[in-house]
């Protein structure tokens, strides 16, 4: 691969990952909210919240330069 294309690869990959995470979040969050509403156990809700926070943290790390 020529050098100019290699220089563009990291920003393109970062943009692609950010877009994929955004789409995944848009699709998954409504499903997770409905699931959370159906859960009756506080422990189950806490586990779901932990997963959501983990996903949001991954998105934040992907968006950081």
From TrEMBL:
It comes from the Eukaryota. Pfam families: MINION (PF21950). InterPro entries: Myomixer (IPR039014). The keyword Signal applies. The keyword Ribosomal protein does not apply. Residues 1-15 form the signal peptide. Keywords: Signal. GO terms for biological process: myoblast fusion; skeletal muscle organ development. This is Myomixer, myoblast fusion factor.
């Amino acid at each position: 691969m020529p050098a100019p294309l290699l220089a563009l690869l990291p920003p393109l990959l970062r943009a692609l990952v950010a877009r994929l995470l955004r789409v995944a979040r848009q699709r998954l969050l409504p499903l997770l909210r409905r699931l959370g509403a159906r859960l009756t156990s506080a422990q189950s809700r806490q586990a779901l919240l932990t997963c959501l926070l983990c996903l949001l943290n991954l998105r934040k790390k992907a968006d950081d330069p």
